[in-house]
Amino acid sequence: MALNIYENLLAGLQDRLERLERPPVITMTTDFGQYDGYVGTMKGVILTLLPDAVVVDISHDVMPQQIHQGAFTLYRAYRYFPASAIHIAVVDPGVGSERRPIVLVTRHGTFVGPDNGIFTYVLTAEQMPAYNRDLARRPAWAGGMWGVAPNWAGVAPPTGDLEPVEDAPMQYDDLPRAYHLVNPDYWLPSLSNTFHARDLFAPVAAHLASGAQPERMGEAVSLDSLATLPLSEPRVSGSGRGTTVVGQVVHIDRFGNIITNLPDGLLGPLLDDATAAPIVEIGDHRIFGLGTSYADVREGQPVALMGSEGLLEVAVRNANAAQRMKTRIGDPVRLIVNRPD
Amino acid sequence: MALNIYENLLAGLQDRLERLERPPVITMTTDFGQYDGYVGTMKGVILTLLPDAVVVDISHDVMPQQIHQGAFTLYRAYRYFPASAIHIAVVDPGVGSERRPIVLVTRHGTFVGPDNGIFTYVLTAEQMPAYNRDLARRPAWAGGMWGVAPNWAGVAPPTGDLEPVEDAPMQYDDLPRAYHLVNPDYWLPSLSNTFHARDLFAPVAAHLASGAQPERMGEAVSLDSLATLPLSEPRVSGSGRGTTVVGQVVHIDRFGNIITNLPDGLLGPLLDDATAAPIVEIGDHRIFGLGTSYADVREGQPVALMGSEGLLEVAVRNANAAQRMKTRIGDPVRLIVNRPD
Amino acid sequence: MALNIYENLLAGLQDRLERLERPPVITMTTDFGQYDGYVGTMKGVILTLLPDAVVVDISHDVMPQQIHQGAFTLYRAYRYFPASAIHIAVVDPGVGSERRPIVLVTRHGTFVGPDNGIFTYVLTAEQMPAYNRDLARRPAWAGGMWGVAPNWAGVAPPTGDLEPVEDAPMQYDDLPRAYHLVNPDYWLPSLSNTFHARDLFAPVAAHLASGAQPERMGEAVSLDSLATLPLSEPRVSGSGRGTTVVGQVVHIDRFGNIITNLPDGLLGPLLDDATAAPIVEIGDHRIFGLGTSYADVREGQPVALMGSEGLLEVAVRNANAAQRMKTRIGDPVRLIVNRPD
User: Fold this and answer.
1) Model pTM score
2) ipTM confidence score
């Protein structure tokens, strides 16, 4: 063999190595549970099509048919994955009916699932203006999407062989974009009416992760045409020296911690301005002041604090707050702040 | 170095790359739950022996000691994995007693577990005659095993770098074959009496996935000698102008959907012939006509349809049918069809 | 290109291939459940930093805030992983408070988590003297740590391309060592007060798995300074011709099997000496003799035996022993042995 043949061969080997060193990531968020093997079946389809895929479970314990819960769970997690990840989300009571199967391409991930509102939070977040295009292409937690100062991303990586993956998967400038999946070439040959996750969404995700263009899979649709869930917005009202913010419980986690829709960004300025400790009201309970960690209070005592997602949270130390307070998703939560005269 | 040394080195590198691009898949179906770390321990054994293995959970939530449920769960999932996959299935109340540990090699996968009936469905399916040898070597869902027209497998793959994996793992012609695992060289050095999944089945699966021949692991045994569960067959009876098919509930899934043992292949011709909508009877409930998706009926209403496995299924839209109808596994289900005079 | 350039290129490719053939393993043991996506989020962080990591769940179903249960679950599993594995363990009711985040480096694995006692069992086991340094560097189950005769490790591996991974990750001689994690360069840029598993432990584990030295991540601390849980030791008392060993229930597994803290090593010599069958007392129940497998007794009957971890266990065949016997963790268990005159 001539030397230039070696050069080509070596270049080919290097390309394959690079691909293997960053295997494609596909995540799943469903209400399928672990009981029936539905999730394992989807992984079989993906690995048959794309043997080196890395499949990550976000949650399969979304309560049956609870689209909002799936949407919120996906939203909290996707920001911590590489922007090149493909996210399958299937809470799909309308499977086999008129609802459209879609793919949604954003700067921080590509999403596959039914057009029934499960992408509501992702879509809202990804449509927020990005102040800094450069940051916007980074993994979300490196500081991009949320405008957090990138105190880490700016310095040299601390070890020799490790640096955050910053691959922006798409060459488009106008993201997000959505497509209605209509091309059966990318599905399993036989499409059931009750398990599109296996027959349609899993193979589409495998094809996307292997580099197939979404344009070939379906028709572009406008973002406005996508189904979204009605999200309740926090209400701020002031009377004289006090300000009251009324929000809602949006999630109760495994520990019974009560997560609200009151964000850091809204409450922060109010709290800076306050003359006295804020009061959090939930059901019959009043909590005075905000803590910083669960261990701020004694065992069995309630504490309100900013949770890990930047949302106001109510917990009881070493106990289940939602059970103690008989709280349910959708319940109102009030934060009362007193201003200086 | 001389050039032919490079050629050999390059060929070696290419072989290793090819192996990495299609890492060996090992699945697990057990009644171990996720609570105790038993499953994680098995994965530790596998990864210690075979570091590049891809281990996929099918289900660990089979109810304790329910061999039939494990057998059915495995059966529904394995057909969607590459034919080269190794499937560990352990619902094993007789662990440490006389029951034999076995490996079962089939055209569509290799199975490791106790000889207690957990492979009943797989064995039945794999012993069905394959009409087309070519199809029979494909992954099951590509159309092989079930005789579905391979509308996808026949065309060029839709993307440049992705095609279904069709590796038939074995060179044998007379599959399935079974072996009684008696060679402790392939087990952990110390065999407990209560956790063969860790000490025997996991290392055997790792060795199989790395290419070891089952002949070296144990003694060939006849398929007839394998333990099988008694499966109830649907009964068809006709009287005058009507036909009644009586089957059984074989599974109730996480959603409460009721899955029966009445297959598409049996019901299809009857339904084609019918003059009126069929009636499905289950417990005190009668459902008129078959739907095509869960969303065919109003919220809270029952619907009978062909499920994603080609089995008759009864569901209630956005609710738990089994709870509503007080249905249990083993309950009878009747499909009544009227024929033309 | 000159030939020596090829040699260097080929050597580089081979290094990368070797790394890919033994991808870094990171395990997780937490009380996070699967419900909220917390675990998936941690995996996103790890895969963003270290795309070829293999992440294995040991258990996420540790009961909320039950540090002892997490410690025991981790202990039972870690011995079956490669010594190069990084183990994240987070049952962390004190998150965001004074408790230290630590890394613990041992001969059989590296551990990351809060300094709250979750490493109690690991630390105890790893501080036991190793009789044979050579064995001590092997994966635990190959016989090293527990002094089991390495009947497998001594012979040639049974297949051509598979042998146990015996990489000792560290060059230190004086292990275990511990470090207080204080260097935020190895954390996510923004540290929440309630989710250190995502913001601190996951990225630290990814950095460790990629080869970063723990010395750069924090300050060495003495093993004596680490928090440990008070473990109850079995008590042996003899009176005349009988010996009584009193222990405790330490774990109840998914099957309801009751696992005690009475080890093989303690009971073995007593049983060898006995003139009659031993008696196991638990609550109001007395079990005569030790069995060897669950199937030693009739359906529904209790059996005492040595479990897969070398600890005395009480089970009921095909039923839930803990429910039948109303047993709880911490309950006393007695083994009574009669000696010859």
Assistant:
1) 0.91
2) 0.90
